[in-house]
Structure formats: structure tokens, C-alpha cells
Design goal:
- 41% of the residues lie in helices and 0% in strands.
- The chain contains 6 helices and no strands.
- With 122 residues, it is mainly α.
- Helix 5 packs across helix 6 (115-121).
């Protein structure tokens, strides 16, 4: 038995077919297109006030890692990365007394570890 083949539309339109815009809408679109860029920038806020739509509130991105963003702030982010202090170091002990133990108290002082973690490290 062969699988059934379906005919799909060339373009998927979730809202279905729409009627063409009225002459009034076409004229309005032509008038908006003829405006200067400065006047076009004023259309959105004016319509929002006129139709009493609520003003869009900015979303806080505090605590979110959005990655490096392009634009003028990208250069300053790279400059900040270069200023980061080194927090991990490799320590090589060249001479030490094999009979003496490393003091757990000293390890805790420079690693900020708890007692159990410092003992495990030693």
C-alpha cells in the first residue's frame, strides 16, 4: 500500500485567506509612505496615545546572560574582560620538609574553604 500524498499550499497562512484592503486603507498607506522619516517616527506613539494602548514596559535583563551584544557596547565589554584579575594559580612546591604537614589553617586562609574541604585538599 502506497503512502497517501497530500497537496500543501505554497505558503502557509494560519489566518486563512483575507480580503484585499479597502481603498481607504490603500490611500492611508500611500499617505504614510509619503511622509518624511521624522514624521513616520511620530506615528507609533501618536496612535498608542490616541487608541489608549498601554505603554510598553522595558523588561529587566538583570541576572540573565545574554552573551556579547553587537554595537557600541561590545567594545567596552571586551575592555572589561581584559581587566579581570586572575583568580586561579598553579603552585609548585620546590623544597619542603617531608616530615612536616601543610597547615590546614594556612590553606583555609588563602583559599576561603571550609575545614572539611581544606583537609581534603591537604
Amino acid at each position: 500500500m502506497k503512502p497517501k500524498r497530500y497537496k500543501y499550499p505554497a505558503v502557509y497562512d494560519p489566518y486563512g485567506p483575507r480580503p484585499p484592503p479597502s481603498d481607504k486603507i490603500v490611500q492611508l498607506a500611500d499617505r504614510i509612505a509619503a511622509l518624511s522619516p521624522e514624521e513616520r517616527k511620530q506615528i507609533g506613539p501618536t496612535l498608542r496615545d490616541r487608541l489608549r494602548h498601554p505603554k510598553m514596559q522595558p523588561i529587566s535583563s538583570d541576572g540573565l546572560d545574554l552573551g556579547l551584544q553587537g554595537g557600541p557596547s561590545a567594545g567596552s565589554a571586551k575592555a572589561e574582560e581584559k581587566k579581570v584579575e586572575k583568580t586561579a594559580f598553579d603552585v609548585k612546591l620546590e623544597k619542603f620538609d617531608a616530615a612536616a604537614k601543610i597547615k590546614v589553617k594556612e590553606v583555609r586562609a588563602f583559599t576561603n574553604l571550609g575545614l572539611k574541604e581544606a583537609k581534603d585538599l591537604v
